[in-house]
Structures are given as structure tokens and as C-alpha cells.
User: Fold this.
Amino acid sequence: MSGLLRRKPIGPAERRDGGLTPTLSWPHLLALGVGAIVGTGILTLIGVGADRAGPSVLLSFAIAGAICACAALAYAELAAMMPASGSAYSYAYSALGEIFAWVVGWSLILEYSLVVSTVAVGWSGYASPLLMGGGFPELLTRGPELGGLINLPAIFIIAVVTGLLLLGTHESARVNTVLVVVKIATLSLFVAVTLPSFDAHHLHPFMPYGFASMAGPDGVPRGVMAAAAIIFFAFYGFDAISTAAEETKNPERDLAIGIVGSMLVCTVIYILVAAAAIGAVPFAGFANSPEPLALILRDLGRPGIAHIIATAAVIALPTVLLAFLYGQSRIFLAMARDGFLPRGLAAITKRGTPARITTVTAILVAILAGLLPIGEIAALANAGTLIAFMAVGACLIVLRRRRPDLRRPFRTPAGIFVGLGAVLGCAYLFISLPTKTLVWCLVWNAIGLAVYLGYARSRAVLSD
Assistant:
């Protein structure tokens, strides 16, 4: 078992010859994080959360945000200390050892691939009716599991985002920033329209299902924590910022601003939108609705605003694709540099982008989005995220104990407790996942360990 725990040395950030071009500053990183976090979750999870917790879904948002904040603070310290494209994978390689790094990297592949594919399929669901209205064949708007041939709109939007990334990181960051502004303006419009209808009586009883997660008569778990376990997944995405380390002009400062700043911005947005929704109409009126915000606006007699918000959401949704496709290609790049993937994939073009690895990544997720039953396996992305977050929390604790002498440009307050909060909070949410999801996660990681032992381990750069 020699070599399973070998660790990469921790040193100052280096700009390698032929590496990625540093073109990003903290506003770009902040927009990247907000673009990744604010996606379909805020448009749908308020309804699901209200069904699980009632008006106390506001508390659920705060708790989920607090758990994510622990992970975000851990990411911020490690990213500023070790500005590497590999994100949690690279931190685990330096702090925990190679086998743990591989498991984290393998989990991130799962997370990013499924998020990109699922969001692309979701975007296709909005775009397909418009296309079919113009005569586009219905069989080409859905995968075989839904009775179609292939989901071409999902593949198309992945291709568009990939082309933008190949054009250049700075150019794609500018487009992303514009779309994020559209997204924030859309949610601000919802709050502005619904707040005048706020009725405090809609908040009573505040906690109809209690605090702890308990199964109701229908078998559905309810309570503040049951809703928090679902709402948590509307917050992740800030980890994509850490993959931009090599392309950031001042990573020691800007990565922490981007990670922590995007979490703060999104938490405020989510709580404001949730409060406006709960106060505008009784929660039972939109609980478990697939389009709660639009439903609330229609109930208030504002169907035109509902249409504007739905349209703007579709326009801005590709920001999630851009952030996660960008992040996945950079994690693949780091793994290829370390020898876990063919090293030829790590080539950088004259435009300063990893074109080969970005193209391979896009082909992978396009196959998933176009052909495979995404709906049944999308929950696996949550498992991959939680494994990465737990690992980052553990890395923070280990390095605080083992290497207190390391220079930390950003030092998380109460670091040990923050790390424990990330590990324990994410562990609780992990065991709260459906049993089927946990089984598939185990299968995925068993495959990953077989690939590591049979291929990657002997080809790792550290084994040379």
C-alpha cells in the first residue's frame, strides 16, 4: 500500500510557463460564484422547502446557509494559501494524501458532470416548447428515457457555453457578469412586486412541523432540518471559484473575496426572496409547486411579471453551466498535470485556455445530457458535493494542526470550529440523502478506486 498517502508539497503559488493566463479579478470571481449558486434552485426549492417546513423555511435557509458558510470559509483559507486549479482535489492531495485526493477528485467529476448535464436538460425543458412551436421535431427535444431520440437543445446549449470558454476566460467572464446582473435584477423585481403584499399573518404558525426532521403520514420527512437538507443544494457552486486560482491576478486576496462574498450575496438574496414569498400568500398555496415564484405572482394578479421572470431565468440559466463546466475542466486539468489523466490533455492554447480538456469535458456532459436518464441520477451530484465539502473542512483542521507555520493570506476565524462545522454539517446532510443515492455513490467510488489502483496510481507524477 506504499504511496497511497503520499502528499504534494505546499509551496508559494507559481506561474508556470505555458500555463493558464491570469485575467480575472474579484468582481469576475464574485459573478462566477453568484452565477453558479443562483440557478434553478431558488426558482423551485422555495416551494419544496415550504412544503417541508412551512413559514419556518426561512430558518431552513439560514441553517443551510450557515453550513455552507463553514465550507466557504474553509475553501477561502485554503484557496488563498494554495491557489491551485484543482480546488478541493489539490487541497486534499497536499493535506490528506493521494488516495483521499483521488476520491475527492472522482467525487468532483461526479458533481460537476451531473450538475452541467441536469441544468442543460432543465434549460432544454424551457426552450423546447418554443422550438416545437416553430416546427422543430419533438423527438429531438428529449432523451430515449422520455420516449425521444436525443435532447438536441441540451447539447446545443452545452456547445454554446463551451465555445464561449474556448474563446477565452476573460471574455466568458464578462458575458457571465452581464447574465448574473440580469439574474439578480430578476429576483429583485420579484421582491419589489411581492413585498407590498406582505402579510405577517402568513407566518403563523411559524413552525407547523417542528424543528427536527420527522417523517409525516405520507412518508415525506418534514421539519426545519428536513427542509434545510434540501435547501442546502441551492447554495453550492461557490467551490467553482477556487478552480479559477491560476487565472486570478491576485489569488491571495481575490479568491477569498469571491468565495465569501458570493455566499453572503446569495444568502441575502435567498432569505429576501423566501420572506417575500412566504409573506405574500399562505405557504400552502405554493408548497411543492415546480414554479412557486411564478405561481405567487399569478395569485397576486401579476401574470406579466411572472412571464418576465420566467423568461429572464431561462436567459440567465447558462451562467450555471458556464461556472460548472469551467470548474470541471480546471479540475480535469489539475488531475492531468498530476498524471491521473493523460498528460497530453493538459495542453494550453495560445489564447491561454485548456482547449483539449475543455472539449473532452463538454463531450462527456453532452452525452449525459443528450442520451442518459439524468433525472434518476442527478441526486448523485449532491453526494459528490458533500464529500468534497467534508474533505475541505478536514483539510483546514489538519493543516491548522500539522502546519500552523504556513502563511495564510486569509485566515478563517475560529478555524478548527469552522472546519468541524463543515465536516459535521455536511456529514449530517450526507446521511440524510436517499438510500438509493448513497448506494449509487458507493458504486461510483468503487469504480473510482478500481480506476485509481489499475491505472492512475502508477502514472502519478509523484511516483516518477
